[in-house]
Design brief:
The protein is about 30% helix and about 20% strand. It has six helices and ten strands, in the order H-H-H-E-E-E-E-H-E-E-E-H-E-E-H-E.
């Protein structure tokens, strides 16, 4: 490509008509040689610059179009370490004092011990099985009690064990609320849950609820019994607020 360019320059220099109509070149041969040398040096320098850029040289920072200031590249964000003690939004929020029962799903986490951290389901006999600890009776315990028991058992195996126990799914102890309330459905049992507390969790009575006709359906000895609830007396403190049992259904007509 360079040879074609220089041959064109030579033809233009030797032909007077071309020199007069197209390009004016210096008459002296020494001056023409200096022009050629400068052109070669400029082309070589340009090729060297292109080689540096393609070889991995960093591109200059791009000025900000709005402010004119150069923008700096943000450092890569590092993932924050996950802590087993942090609450999982997918977990069921069991009430305070909730006691573990059969079919409940638990999440047991041991800090820095992934082999011991796992999700387990309580068997029908109230027992769970964990690595190295084998079978453990957990039915009837609160999460705090089970956490303390596991911490004590792991001291012989783990240096300063940090244990967290969460109820992932409540399936054992539930009560049911149906009828003219804010949110009818199944609710986990806590220690000493009453009718008023259950209705409060459901958002209260609806505008057309019949407060005088509320009752509890309970199964005892293979039979279904109906227990009336005096809602107004319970609210005013003049009447009793019945404590619910697992499996009870509160009906608000």
């Amino acid at each position: 490509m360079l040879s074609l360019y220089f041959s064109g320059i030579d033809r233009a220099h030797d032909n007077p008509s071309v020199r007069s109509t197209r390009v004016r070149f210096p008459q002296e041969g020494g001056v023409l040689k200096r022009y050629r040398l400068r052109l070669i040096l400029a082309l070589v320098g340009g090729l060297a610059t292109c080689g540096n850029i393609s070889g991995g040289a960093q591109a200059p920072e791009t000025p900000n179009q709005t402010t004119g200031q150069q923008t700096e590249t943000e450092p890569a964000k590092k993932d924050k370490p996950s802590h087993s003690s942090q609450a999982n939004p997918a977990m069921t929020q069991a009430p305070v004092g909730y006691r573990i029962g059969a079919d409940d799903e638990l999440m047991i986490s041991v800090w820095h011990e992934p082999e011991l951290s796992q999700s387990v389901v309580v068997r029908s006999d109230g027992i769970i099985t964990l690595p190295l600890l084998n079978d453990i009776k957990v039915a009837g315990m609160t999460t705090e009690e089970l956490q303390a028991a596991l911490t004590e058992k792991l001291k012989a195996l783990v240096n300063d064990p940090q244990v967290t126990v969460s109820v992932k799914t409540v399936k054992s102890q539930r009560v049911f609320l149906m009828g003219a309330v804010g949110k009818p459905g199944a609710y986990p049992m806590g220690g000493g849950l009453t009718v008023l507390q259950l209705i409060a969790q459901a958002g209260g009575l609806g505008p057309f609820a019949k407060a005088r006709s509320i009752y509890i359906l309970r199964h005892e000895n293979g039979k279904e019994i109906r227990i009336p609830v005096s809602y107004k007396k319970a609210v005013s403190g003049k009447g009793g607020d019945p404590v619910l049992q697992s499996g009870d259904m509160v009906v608000v007509p």
